Amino acid sequence: MKNKNQSGVALVLTLVLLAVVTLMSVLFLGMSRRERASIRVTEDQTDARLAADTGLARAQAEVAGRIMAESNFFKYDLMVSTNLIRAAGFDRSLGTNPLNVAYLNADNGGALGGDDLRRMLSNLRYSPRAPVFVPTNGPNTNDFRFYLDLNRNGRFEENGLVTMVDDRGVAIQGQDGRPSRTPMVGDPEWVGVLQHPDSPHSSTNRFIGRYAYIVMPAGKSLDLNFIHNRSKFTTDRILANEGYHRNQGFGSWELNLAGFLRDLNTNMWDYAYAYQNLASPSSGFAFNDANALLAYRYQDSLNNLASVRAIFTQNGANAFRFDRIDGYARAVQGDTPPGASDPDNPDFRWAGSDNPRDFIDIMELFDGDDSRGGFTNRFRTPSFRRSTYDRYTTYRAFAQLGVDSAPVNRGKIHLHYDTVAARPTNSIAWEPVAFFTNAALRILRSELVAVTNGNTKDYYIGEYLFRPGIPVTHELVLTNLSIPIFPFNAYSPAVHRALQLSANIFDATTNRVDNGFVFPSVFRPVFIRSGTNIFISGYREVGRGGGDGRGEWSSLPWLDVRVPNQNSRIGNTTHANVLGVPWIIGAKKGFPNFNEYQLQTAAQVTRKLEFRKKSFTDRGPFDVHQMYIVGVSNTFGVETFHSYTNDYTRPTRLLITNSVAGALWDRRANRALGTLNRTISRNEIRTWRAGEIYVPFATNMVFIPDSAYFSLPSGDLRPLSTRPTFDPNPQHPTPEWDLIITNRLTMIAIDEATRRVVDFVNFDQLPSGFNVTTNLLKEPNVLSSREYSDSSFWLSNRLSNAELPAGHTNQIYVSSNDVLSDTDWASFSLNPVSGADKRKAIDGFRMFLGLTPLFSSGRLQPSTNLVVQVPFSPSRKFLQTMSWQANDPLVHTHILDLTHEDYSNPDLVIPLKPPLTVESKSNLGLMNPRYEPWGGSSNRTDSPSYYDIRHKDPLVRKSDDWAFPTNKFPTIGWLGRVHRGTPWQTVYLKASGPLDTNSWWKWAGTLGTHPTNDWKLMDLFTVAPNNNAARGLLSVNQTNIAAWSAVLSGVNLTTNTVAPAQINRFTKAEFGTLVAEPASPQLQRIVGGIMRGRTNWFGGVYPYLGAVLSVPELTVGSPFLNFTNLNQVRHGIDDAAYERIPQQIMSLLKADEPRLVVYSFGQALKPAGPPFSPPSIVAGGPFYGLCTNYQVTGEVVTKTVFRVDGTVQQPRIVVETHNVLPAE
User: Fold this and answer.
1) Which range (381-390, 392-401, 938-947, 1041-1050) has the least confidence?
2) String of b and e for 91-122 (b: at least 16 CB within 10 Å)?
């Protein structure tokens, strides 16, 4: 038996254990409840995350769907989620219908209630607007939260067509007198996610979540992290004073954020740009806020930026200092690069360096940080105003400004530094051949056009075939220069132009001095064999002394690939000169050059007839024999031209070789009746006077001396000096002769002091000749009215099976009848008889034929001859002048550069009238008729293209007027100052009106060199010194004015200033400077032109960067130029003035790219419980169990950056980054 003490202890222990058990039970129950709550939270967050993912997928599908529907990658823009809502309101008469959804009544516009609301909620299925009503303290007890209020104004900004209202809330009237309605993008609308999306909302199919998204067009937007600068005050470390400056447009930091803000909302941001004084800050809220945003990125101090030297090391620092590019955007604005005192100090902190702090999320613009000087307040304030313009300010900003750009310099050729080598290093200058071949390859790729032909594709460059027969399943990918020249020759004028342009670009960006002179770069081709095919495989530079690393170029063999034993000498990497394949010489001013090759061919044909009797009393028929006499001679010569107003005093050696081959081909005998093979060479040293046209040689040679043609036995010619007899062939055949002449010409000009080549011409075939027989039937160059024409004596048809051709019959009739005057008789024939001698000859022939004399009856004795020659012998002479001549002296190394239908057309054969002494004037030693700079030349007054800006550069009236760059380019727009390889024209960056293809073909010799082809060059090259300089550039398909204002505002422009009444062709053009201002009529006109210009392209978008140059307002219709009268256009505006805007902005623009940022908002939904009122679940009736209100139980926000690859038929979404954002 226990004592009391023991019992007490036991009781205490029992109570303690009971308490512990009770406590553990309570704790367990508490933990279970907490875990259940935690699980519910996790489930809700998972649902919210899945809703956000659904929103992302929907956004991606919308983007891909637009691309597929429009067959265009660039059909994307700012987009937000929207609901399906019947605009007219809910119509109870339609009953159950998934399209009959609206929260307003169609009858009176009031809010739905009762069974109407429940019926409508039962229709929700497609992009449904889930009922989420939230209790508030406001006048409305429940707030319908169907939209995402991203602009934080507490009001719904509609999507779709929106009635525009002014600042009083009054509708703005359109031109038709009705309220103006404009497509707008506003607040994202929440889209409900049903438990079973294939069925409508019901008591058993409730909403489990909803999503909203906004898609921001990163590919079309500026980047807040790379726009703007503070270049005026590079030594002022504290960012108190604004210091933006715009100069050449070298990098993204020259984009004008203040200009953007000014045109984002002109009611909020004023703007006063102090561009004339680098020591003065600009003023206005636009500049203040731009500076505040910049200060945030710089963490309030320039000291936080890196210097050029720190980024690029010593080599890059030296290049940056002496490149004559304003890399810091702090030089005084001007048209030319900075001089020797380039202000770029590589130790200054540089705006192109990485930001110490980036904007990660565009929503950070709403952060109410007072350190931003009131920007956030000014950014938010417009959304609270009445006008549509103000309320949509935020969404206009989202459509134009982001923080997620990618650099666009990848895959482009840097104009200054080698970035494609195995180990590319910034600021390492290009080797000449490396730049030349890489640039040429890129240009050729850009001009390839595929034409499907059954199971194969033929690739063209211009109108010339480049690669035939590629299977349709393959794409031609040019990875290196591989230009076929045999047996298929793809070296067309367009290919040559691409190579020439590449050399011109290199020479325009370099200034290599040798012996006190700047010589052009020279590149010669290298050849390779692949089976029976021969290609140009690359190029080598020909430098000083003529050496190119493989000995003197003069020792290289000259090969004709059409000759088998010469063709076989080409193997792997063969160094040779192939006849007809030119070298490429960069365009440099000041050198004499080849100018013209002329060949004149004169051919003379005479036909004599002989009659034979068998006896004195024979009265016919007679034997008639014929004799065709033919003679051919040639005159040919070469011409050079120093087209500058200064003497060229450097002794230069001319090496000229002209090989002429010819034949008179007898088609009947299928053999050559006579051949010509002759080579003429010249080797001389000389200088040139200013403007001197020098003819190294002009030679005459007799190809075929006057000879008689015998058709039997196999056709041959017998010189008249051998006194040949008549052709005894009784068929009297008409000869069928082709005169064929070909020429090969090489001319090499070599600077004697340096042995550098300064000109090189290599023409394999300069064809001439004509069909002699056909031309016998042509009329002469002098017409007269008479029964018998010159050609009537050469007719070859025979009437009624006559023995003699009609031409012979006419010859006999004229010889026996007085039907020709003395003058006509003499003009048709070489026989000089006339007057009494002519009449005597006619009577003598008549008496031979047994006919009565016409003039001397009774006084002539009967003829006792058995053989007599017909007195009238028709004779014809033909003159063909073939002249291959340069128009622009800088364009002369491809045969089609020199070919023109008016001067080198083989069909231009002039029949001359005997006595055959009239000669066509030779042009050798005279100004070429084709020489036609701006305004024409003194020897031509009839050209329709004298002042055609589509053909030639304005105000370049002579070679001295060229103003090619000689230093590195600040922007790709400076390519517009490089000679493009067609006559009198630099790279064409202007808009072009309709240009007749025949007109261009006559001007340049090929359609493949059309001026607007140059627009694509903007997509091939870059000058960006690093990736930052190429980020945040503006897409040419951006449609909003604020972004374009960032590009254009502050641009230094030129305008012609000579008064219209004073301008004429003798007046020197003068120009003033001005600056483009945001919110100005001029800027609005330019942007309006850009918007209109897009409609001229497929799908209403610019397919590539350079396509924006088709906009006239950027060049030929610039609002900053004076087009008052025709004299201004002809004599007051030069090419640099026309292309000033592209020069300044092209490196700040980019081609469009389908790259987007999606902010996707997901919310988990549950039927609303307390404190929500009334109850959310219908308790009875036909809608029993239907949920009429949901509450948000979880929320997730994601940010996704993606691009679209693939094809427009099968676009492929490629996600670059995907992040869940923290809660605000």
Assistant:
1) 938-947
2) beeeeebeebbbbbbbeeeeebeeebbbbbbb
Burial of 31 (0-12, 13-18, 19+ CB in 10 A): exposed
Q: Measure the CA–CA gap between 1148 and 250, rounded to whole angstroms.
A: 8
C-alpha to C-alpha distance for 1115 and 1015, rounded to whole angstroms = 13
Q: Residue ranges of the alpha helices (H) in 616-742? A: none
SS3 of residue 686 by DSSP? strand
Contacts of residue 354, defined as CB under 8 A and 6 or more positions apart, other chains included, come to 306, 1028
Report the DSSP beta bridge partners of residue 1190. Answer: 1167
Question: Within this chain, do residues 618 and 529 fall inside the same structural domain, yes or no?
Answer: no
Which tokens is 1082 given? 């001029």
Residue 755 lies in a domain: yes
In a shared domain, residues 772 and 701: yes
Residues sharing a CB contact under 8 Å with residue 866, sequence separation 6 or more, in sequence order: 612, 613, 614, 615, 616
Count the domains in the chain: 4
Residues 747 and 768 in one domain: yes
**626 and 754 inside one domain:** yes
CA nearest neighbour of 245 among 278, 285, 289, 291: 278
| pLDDT one-digit tens code per residue, 134-160 | 887 665 567 898 999 999 999 999 999
Which are the contacts of 720, defined by CB distance < 8 A and separation ≥ 6?
A: 629, 705, 706, 707, 708
Q: Does 558 share its domain with 671?
A: no
Which tens digits make up the pLDDT trace of 529-588? 999 999 999 999 998 876 665 557 778 999 999 999 999 999 988 899 999 999 999 999
Extended beta strands in 413-560, E state: 413-414, 448-453, 456-461, 464-471, 483-486, 513-514, 517-518, 522-530, 533-541, 558-559
Does any domain span residue 1128? no
CA distance 1027 to 1014: 25
Please check whether residue 351 lies inside any domain of the structure: yes
* Cα maximum dimension of the chain: 197
Output the CA angle 843-847-849, nearest 5 degrees.
120
Backbone angles phi, psi at 211, to 5 degrees: -135, 155
The amino acid sitting at 1057 is: T
Task: Among 126, 160, 177, give the residue marking a domain's end.
Answer: 126
pTM equals: 0.90
